[in-house]
Amino acid sequence: MHLSSLRLHDFRCFENVELAPDAGVNVITGDNASGKTSLLEAIFFLGRGQSFRQSGPRPAIRRNAEAFTVSGEIDVPGGRSHRIGIQRTRRAITYRRDGDPNTTRLDLVNALPLQLIDPNVHRLLEQGPRYRRYFMDWGVFHVEHTFFPAWRRYRRALRQRNRALKSRWPKKDVIAWDAELVRNAELVDASRRAYIDQLHAGLPAQARRLLGDEAVSLEYDSGWRGEDGLGHALAANLDQDLRAGFTQQGPHRADLRVTIASANARDWVSRGQQKILTTALLLVQAELLYARRGIRPVLLIDDMAAELGARYREVLAHEIAALGGQSFVTFLEASLVPEALAEARMFHVEHGAVTRR
Prior knowledge:
This protein is of the alpha/beta class. Helix content is 43%, strand content 23%. It contains twelve helices and 14 strands.
């Protein structure tokens, strides 16, 4: 699976851009603020239906324009292709897959699996559990088909239980949601555990190629205390939940601890090494998706040279090239492109235009 064409209209600094990426590695060069990251953001919109920038989608509309459109064509095994697109006005956002007006954001996620490695990728290790849950659930969503329906039902029951807690309803009205919560929590938890076990199996070899011989491991936290299951934990914690006004235990509080040499990874390694370690996790995810579904996700790698010395850049570039899927990698200038990516298709961004080199 790869993106064979990309079209942008009134997206950030780009008025009209069309390019034909290679099915393998695509290198994008350009000065700071030239639009390299915006180009990756446009591709991210196609695969996630949203921006990876905290400013959200509305500022992505080019100045003095009323809307932006990003569209593309995906080639999939067997000679088939799909057209996907997203349009954002100042009031609404719409998605299209093969012209279907009922397309949802999840349809885009299914159509174009992709992963982002950017200068903030270290947040996976450094910051709160939500980043690690997002990492886990992207992978589980794509390989465990029972996961998302259960997760959606769980979230619905959780909202109702939290509403009852916040409104200080009687206990009987709070615990009325517990059975639905527990039933779906068990499915969510089982899917996550199975996925983390598979991820953990592939991590040591990938980490060794990128970081050396230090032992890397993953430890999954289900999000509740005790060995008697979530139902018991909810009952034991009911009074505390009533005082807090929300449910304090469950899969929505799950976490993933990443350790290297038996120490918490965020405390043990430098920022550059955190980037390499996080990249190792994402590359293992990509390999697992290919092993389970025969799909290689598109990799978006922004400013690959940032915080990485020449040796790490070469090692990482070799892994990206060897992965076999499509990737888009940005650099400030061509001289920073590692030897392993020398055969990549080259693009240059300048003054709102993208040219092939």
